[in-house]
Amino acid sequence: DFLFFWGAVFLVTTTLVALLKKENKELIPAKEETKGITDTYRLLFSIIKMPAVLTFCVLILTSKVGFSAADAVTGLKLVEEGVPKEHLALLAVPMVPLQIILPLVISKYTAGPQPLNTFYKAMPFRLLLGLEFAFLVWWAPKVKHEGGFPVYYYAVVVLSYALHQITLYSMYVAIMAFNAKVSDPLIGGTYMTLLNTVSNLGGNWPSTVALWLVDPLTVKECVGAQDHTCGTAAAAEV
How many angstroms separate the Cα of 69 from the Cα of each of 157, 165, 214, 229? Predict the structure, then answer.
């Protein structure tokens, strides 16, 4: 029902835009230096070869490695420990207003000459929250009872997620502000797209690796099967 409703909304709105929105017929001379796809890619390669851009790309590709396990695996491990999926989904609802307000608040601190200062300041707190998430997973079986989980456990989870959102958005808004600041106005769209793509990739590849490493790094113990290891998926199945 949810997907059907929003699918219908998207179809209606995009159709209305296609029917009602008219292009500006007055030809405005393009300010960008690029004229086609080939030129754009040539320009991207020339940008990425610049020493400062190359160093920055290496930094943002590796800056989120420390958060990858906490971000990608915590929810799955909480479900594994018995927290109902629908409860975790409901906990995301209070985060929505926070996600709307946070960029407005944080943008005041990233509007100055050094937007990455906010990025640096938020990083240690986000790393500490990774330990907090690990504690939540460890704590889950300790407080679980026949009726599920106590209210105070959910309250701690919501608070932890709220603090995590603050650090996450502080870093996200800061990096976007920095990308906007350093992009050459003549090729602003191309420049910003490149930096934002690298930034997104820097968040996605560590999460993929973290998920892939969950099984090999999980210690398993076989009960009722002497001298039998559960190190691999096949052995655990046996």
Answer: 17, 16, 9, 25
Q: Does 148 or 188 have the greater pLDDT score? A: 148
What span, in angstroms and rounded, lies between the C-alpha atoms of 155 and 221? 32
Question: Distance (Å, rounded) from C-alpha 111 to C-alpha 48?
Answer: 25
Cβ-count burial 220-231 (b if 16+ within 10 Å, e if not): eeeeeeeeeebe
Say how many CA atoms lie within 13 Å of 40 toward its Cβ. 11
Residue 146 near residue 86, CB atoms below 8 Å: no
Amino acid letter, residue 216: P
Residues 6+ away with beta carbon under 8 Å from 75: 88
pLDDT tens per residue across span 1-40: 999 999 999 999 999 999 998 877 766 555 555 567 788 7
CB 216 within 8 A of CB 79: no
Per-residue pLDDT tens digits for 107-165? 888 888 888 999 999 999 999 999 999 999 999 999 988 878 898 999 999 999 999 99
